[in-house]
Amino acid sequence: MEDDRVEALFAGVEYDIMELRMREPLMQRLMHEMKTHLVDKFEELVAKQPKKPFLIYDDMIYTYKAVDDMACRVANIARSWGLKAGDCVAIMIQNEPSFVYTFLGLQKLGIVVALVNHNLTAHSLVHSISAVDSKALIVGSGIELLDAVIDVLPNLGKLPVYVQGVSQQNLPVGLTSFDDLMRDAFPLAFSPSVRSGVTLTDTCCFIFTSGTTGNPKPVYITHSKCLRNSFFPAFLINHNRDDVMYGVLPFYHSSGLFLGIGATLLAGSCLALRIKFSARHFWTDCRKYKVTTFAYIGELLRYLVLQPKSELDGVHNIRAAIGGGLRIDIWNEVKERFKIPRIAEFYGATEAYSALNSFTEKPGAVGRLSPLLRKFDPDKKMLVRYDVETAAPIRNEKGRCIPVKVGEPGLLISKVPDDLLNKKLYKAHSKETEKKFIWDVFVPGDVYMNYGDSFVLDKEYFVYFHDRLGDTFRWKGENVSTKEAGDKIGLLPFIEDVSVYGIPMPGHDGKAGMAAISLSPNARLDNKELQEMYAHVFKELPSYARPLFIRHIPMQILTGTFKNKKGDLAKEGYDLDIVKDPLYFLDHENKAYSPLTKVKLVKFMKSKL
């Protein structure tokens, strides 16, 4: 037994030594970067390299000086509105240069920027804007964005709304052209003293997560956290001044903001943009713009693998990719087919202040959690046993959490530093965020954060993603709140109760949405209701949150605490050999949820989901 413990302690020790050697100089550099704000770094670069390309978009090159001129105009406009440091402005802009210069322009004044998901509509959009006490809303170009805002304008009260990409004469009453304001504004620079009172522990921006209340939840992102997370590409792939990063992940997400804009500014490099990810144009863009690094999520790489093979697949300048969610089943294919020298995986959560990083290219691994590395880890990350139904840690007879063994799925938790618990930021956290805190984990008084995801350790302590737990699942690169989707579907008068859950889909990362519905007394589920349900989810839910399948069950099965019991339903999924309840699929051709048969299922799986 003693020999087994010694062997376990030293398993993978060569990887421990390598990682510790790599960490030290990188951590020293990070500590140096953490002495300033991201916008300060931008202004330093403007002074140092004004003519260097900063952004490439639609074959146009924007230098650091050109972006600064636009950002200064934004700052002058915001100042004319009477805004000051600490005020909040919501922006809903796609991946285009206007997002970058609008964000940086507001940051010049110390204004907190709320990054609203541009896919949102209806109630979710209104909630996001109002949840952060926005003083104004700036909407990017695009008819879809404009239509979404016009639909909810009566619900925004007196909030001023400014629209990019259109002149005043083409806007309805109640909206103001931001382009007209930009045309008349001067690119005069502000002294950094206007934001001198903004500290690194103050809020830089809000990023919205799916939430467990049924509404998008704003997460406070401090200036220090923004800097720390933006350092990942330098930390893991040595992203530097000579690199060109390809940014196709949405900027309203942590990955898009930090690995795209943030990483570019910390390195003083160049960022090539596309307004929306396109698998067909990905490699063409990379070759055209001489891209050397790119950020990904697993779904993105799977879309690339599904493209027809080409003799040009490996013809590019890319030396490294960084991201999360690249599953082991396609890792080697991505690396070998596309000739990518280095792939760096990591795992993090928007609300958390710790992450898993993979310094070695172990296929599928997002990092390591060895006994030795834990000695040097201030966050004390750990995998513990959990209840599958509640996604909560299981306690032993002493009320303490139980670490898992090698090969056993465990819930990821990390220690909340004692000095951070008393800061105003954590006092300001919503009750929903505080629910992620776990108290008295291993000793009385310690506090850990529950990430809500489970992982597995191998014999060398490499960590592999296992499952997303609780009230959210991931589809098309987005986190879906099961409560939000269920609440919206439940508004239909013929539905009594709804359980929404995610189910695995062959050839896709994440899980697709499925809703088990029970009907109100005397209600029917005929063509009329199925068409109404289709129209309803298209109006009320963003595309990624619309259930692909509906299961009509007689009544909901409840747990002992009266929550919908979804585990067995999720396991059965859409298996027509097991499920005897009526099943329906999201039928775009007939604009309805249509009855699912084996023939239709095969055709549906081959369609663009």
Description of the structure:
By secondary structure, this protein is an alpha/beta fold. Among the domains are: 2-22 and 369-468, Roll (Luciferase, domain 3), CATH 2.30.38; 64-222, 3-Layer(aba) Sandwich (Rossmann fold), CATH 3.40.50; 473-606, GMP Synthetase, Chain A, domain 3, CATH 3.30.300.30. It is built from 22 helices and 28 strands. The protein has an eight-stranded mixed β-sheet. The protein has a seven-stranded mixed β-sheet with strand order 7-6-5-3-4-8-9, with helices on both faces. Strands 16, 17, 18, 19, 20 and 21 form a six-stranded antiparallel β-sheet that branches. Strand 1 and strand 2 (60-63) form a beta hairpin. Helix 9 crosses helix 11. It is globular, with a radius of gyration of 25 Å. The protein starts with a helix and ends with a helix. It catalyses: tetracosanoate + ATP + CoA = tetracosanoyl-CoA + AMP + diphosphate; a very long-chain fatty acid + ATP + CoA = a very long-chain fatty acyl-CoA + AMP + diphosphate. Pfam families: AMP-binding. Residues 42-370 form the AMP-dependent synthetase/ligase domain. Belongs to the ATP-dependent AMP-binding enzyme family. InterPro entries: AMP-bd_C_sf (IPR045851), AMP-binding_CS (IPR020845), AMP-dep_synth/lig_dom (IPR000873), ANL_N_sf (IPR042099).
